[in-house]
Design a protein that fits this description.
289 residues, alpha/beta, two-stranded antiparallel ribbon, 19% strand, binds S-adenosylmethionine
Length: 289
């Protein structure tokens, strides 16, 4: 055993006592980030190279600061994004919805599909679509000025790593309810991971104390922002255009009915995440005639 592996074992049990969900993984990822090695090579770090700041980072994680705030990085599909105070940490659940959007756009018979991401946060969805659908023009809307600093930073970061995304994600500042009127009736796909947690619900400390409130809460039933996304998508989409909106696991039936046929939508459909829980709804805006 090396010194680092011994310290990781102690750290993992300390994180477990603090209620961290994946203590061993988090201890290893913190060690790998700090020592600048892949997780698979932690056993190769020489004892003299052990960095005692490891224990500062473990103390932060034991106080339930999110792993991604400690490393400053979040991974989303094929992207490495910067995150920290003031921005929502992108989640794995959202990768599935983004994958659905990528597949639909790839199959669309449109030269340069126009996409809007309502509530951009770190830019995860908008940038993944720009990276994976090289023809897409993506308009990302974000109301929160602190969050927008991270969106801008990630747009610039991804443009360096994937130059084909440069200039294809445009960030718009403001409330998506009233934004992008110049695109009304022309958008091919609207995607959104809006706030959807009912006010007063319990959330873990990593979420409640670190994700911004504007990214989490949305009225007594959690559906307020999703209703606004529905009205905004109706305004923005061309006939036959598509919408995808994320929601909480228990909201599947309610969100399905928000996108019901009597509201002008076609083929509303519930989709599950990787854990098999209801996670997003898609629908097509009606084709005239
Ligand atoms: C749950 S986060 C999602 C961020 C990112 N799209 C993702 O999936 O990781 C929701 C984001 O929507 C933003 N937001 C909430 N209501 C908004 C509104 N009415 N107009 C614009 N942005 C809004 C929040 O500030 C937050 O950044």
């Amino acid at each position: 055993m090396t010194l680092l592996l011994d310290e990781i074992a102690v750290a993992a049990s300390r994180l477990a006592q603090a209620g961290v969900e994946s203590p061993r993984t988090d201890a290893e990822l913190i060690a790998a980030h700090l020592h600048g090695v892949p997780r698979s090579q932690l056993h190769l770090v020489a004892d003299v190279d052990f960095d005692p700041r490891f224990w500062d980072d473990i103390a932060r994680r034991a106080a339930r600061e999110p792993l991604q705030h400690i490393t400053g990085l979040a991974y989303f599909r094929y992207l490495e994004l910067e995150v920290g105070p003031g921005v929502f940490v992108p989640r794995m659940e959202t990768e599935v919805m983004t994958g659905w959007a990528v597949e639909q756009l790839a199959a669309m018979d449109v030269a340069e599909p126009v996409v809007t991401d309502l509530g951009a946060g770190s830019g995860a969805i908008a940038l993944a679509i720009a990276q994976e659908v090289p023809r897409a023009q993506v308009h990302a809307v974000e109301a929160d000025p602190l969050a927008r600093q991270w969106t801008e930073r990630n747009i610039a970061r991804v443009a360096k790593a994937a130059p084909h995304t440069a200039g294809r994600v445009t960030l718009h500042a403001g409330d998506f309810a009233a934004m992008l009127t110049e695109l009304d009736g022309t958008v091919d796909l609207v995607v959104s991971n809006p706030p959807y947690i009912p006010v007063g619900s319990w959330v873990p400390p990593e979420v409640g104390e670190y994700d911004p409130a504007t990214a989490l809460w949305s009225g007594a039933d959690g559906l307020g922002a999703i209703r606004v996304v529905e009205r905004t998508a109706e305004r923005l989409l061309r006939p036959g255009g598509l919408v995808a909106v994320e929601h909480a696991a228990q909201q599947g039936p309610a969100v399905y009915w928000i996108f019901a046929e009597e509201n002008g939508w076609q083929q509303p459909r519930n989709h599950t995440d990787l854990a098999g829980r209801d996670r997003f709804v898609t629908a097509a805006w009606h084709v005239a005639g």
